[in-house]
Design brief:
Elements: E1 8-13, E2 17-23, H1 49-67, E3 74-84, E4 93-103, E5 107-118, E6 126-139, H2 158-166
Antiparallel strand pairs: 1-2, 2-4, 3-6, 4-5, 5-6
């Protein structure tokens, strides 16, 4: 099973920036483990920070892969910075904005902003920047070790293709 941590791509500027969203729902099983009730405290379901980082990695990874028409197998090589200031809870939306800082044949570096969009009593959602996540990606086939990988692009699966197509973006991989 491949988990998707973004639900929709809402903006794509090729080779520059991508914006994706993730709706957080109490129906997601992992929320019940973070954090269940105890005899002294009620349940506090929050989106684990590691999954917020993964959502940004998927957003930025698709942006990097799209830059060259998904010819390369793009893998996360390094988390340069991951700072998240607030918990994300059910009913909220995460908005990931990834920007390519540098792009070479070997890979790319990206910077990302995470926003939390909360519903309000007045019906107007409130958005707040809650974090920054900077990532470095490697083009797997350009590795310096000379390791050869299968021809098929196993990184960008049918799930990513479906995500792009349902977001109105042509996916040719």
């Amino acid at each position: 099973m491949r988990w998707m941590w973004i639900d929709r791509i809402v903006e794509l500027v090729p080779k520059e920036r991508m914006v994706a969203i993730k709706q957080i729902s109490l129906a997601e099983e992992h929320l019940h483990d973070h954090f269940p009730s105890t005899p002294t405290r009620r349940a506090m379901p929050v989106m684990p920070m590691s999954l917020i980082v993964e959502g940004m990695a998927q957003t930025a990874g698709v942006l990097v892969g799209h830059a060259e028409g998904f010819k390369e197998k793009v893998v996360l090589a390094k988390v340069s910075k991951a700072k998240i200031d607030r918990d994300a809870t059910p009913g909220c939306t995460l908005r990931y904005t990834a920007t390519i800082e540098q792009f070479t044949a070997a890979g790319a570096s990206t910077t990302g902003i995470v926003e939390l969009i909360e519903p309000t009593a007045k019906g107007e959602p409130k958005a707040e920047v809650i974090g920054q996540i900077d990532l470095i990606f490697s083009h797997l086939d350009q590795n310096m070790g000379g390791v050869e990988y299968p021809e098929e692009n196993f990184v960008f699966s049918e799930s990513f293709k479906t995500l792009m197509e349902t977001s109105g973006i042509e996916a040719n991989f």
